[in-house]
Known about the structure:
The protein is mainly beta. It has one domain (14-162): CATH 2.40.50.180. It is 12% helix and 45% strand. The chain is built from three helices and eleven strands. It has helices at residues 2-12, 70-73, 146-150, and strands at 15-23, 26-31, 35-40, 54-60, 63-69, 86-92, 95-101, 103-111, 115-116, 130-136, 139-144. A six-stranded mixed β-sheet has the order 8-1-2-11-10-9, with no helix packed on it. A five-stranded mixed β-sheet has the order 3-6-7-5-4. It is globular, with a radius of gyration of 17 Å. One of its GO terms (cellular component) is cytosol. It is found in: Cytoplasm. InterPro entries: CheW (IPR039315), CheW-like_dom_sf (IPR036061), CheW-lke_dom (IPR002545). This is Chemotaxis protein CheW.
Amino acid sequence: xxxxxxxxxxxxxxxxxxxxxxxxxxxxGIDILKVQEIRGYDAVTRIANAPAFxxxxxxxxxxxxxxxxxxxxxxxxxxxxxxxxVVIILNIFQRTVGMVVDGVSDxxxxxxxxxxxxxxxxxxxxxxxxxxxxxxxERMVIIVDIERLMSSDEMALVDMTDRG
Length: 164
């Protein structure tokens, strides 16, 4: 009976699969289904007058892909590019965008009961792009709504009309 109950609960619980990446000492998670590939960090072609967080563009198999440095975007200090620095290539609303992160740690599965609502900070801290916090034991992962972030007016990397 206990085995059947566990099986039944396993079927009814929604599980989210997240790619976990690091920025400084913090771990962030994004929906694994948005990830196209993970690449080492290469030189980018700078674009004049682009915001500081847009590092530039790269040619990815014939497609010009904008590259966003998430450390700069989130105001987490000066980025350091080393052997662990990677670019996560995302597919969002039929557009390809790359984001530079300090490293990728793993892929995790979070059940509903491991998800917490984002904290309320009032207007002091911008939490618009934070879906919530994932907890597994002592580990805490900040879950980023990457579609909302990349389609924000400030980023302007994904045209709102591209949503489908």
